[in-house]
Amino acid sequence: MLPTLAVSIPLTVLIIFTLNILLAEFGAADISGAGAALGAVTQLGPLTTVLVIAGAGATAICADLGARTIREEIDAMEVLGIDPIHRLVVPRVVAATIVAALLNGAVITIGLVGGFVFSVFIQHVSAGAYVGTLTLVTGLPEVIISVVKSATFGLIAGLVGCYRGLTTKGGPKGVGTAVNETLVLCVIALFATNVVLTTIGVRFGTGH
């Protein structure tokens, strides 16, 4: 939760502050809730999920499986007739997918609450207006595509972490190299996936 707070709150404050300044110039500061909801649901939540899942989740999975690989634990499991994919990979990938979706929801909630506090108490926007405009441009379709994005990010991060962990070579140094490669691969893959899913969402009427 702490990494989520550390990433989402500054981003939210920056977005809301910039948005409110722009809206104030047009005399429309009272609809800042609409902008906060759209930004948090369609981009802030999924992108924060990318950073946390790639930086913490996938690398931890890779380090764990990489250490098991160089200690030949994976080979020992196969000798005992235990499928390492079923026993080690599947639970981690499923967990990463579920956690990513839950993390996305937490980031959106934190973002909206942080936006409310900043808008109402710092920039003196009406609390009723902020809450009343949250669903002005953000509805169920945007929420669905946000959940799909985050779950997909978790799935990809879990798969990348497991793959690099199980293919680690070169002893302890190889584990460190695999972890670094996992981080780079995850960030590239997840941001590319975000672009694709956002484009699809816009095509079907989401992510205005």
Automatic annotation (TrEMBL):
Keyword match Acetylation: no
Keywords recorded for this protein, A-Z: Membrane, Transmembrane, Transmembrane helix
Source organism of the structure: Mycobacterium tuberculosis
Name of the protein: Integral membrane protein YrbE2a
Pfam families assigned: MlaE
Entries under InterPro entries matching the protein: Permease_MalE
GO cellular component annotations of the record: ATP-binding cassette (ABC) transporter complex
Entry GO MF terms: phospholipid transporter activity
Keyword Transmembrane helix: yes
PANTHER family named among the record's database cross-references: ABC TRANSPORTER PERMEASE PROTEIN-RELATED, PROTEIN TRIGALACTOSYLDIACYLGLYCEROL 1, CHLOROPLASTIC
Segments crossing the lipid bilayer: 47-67, 93-123, 143-163, 183-204
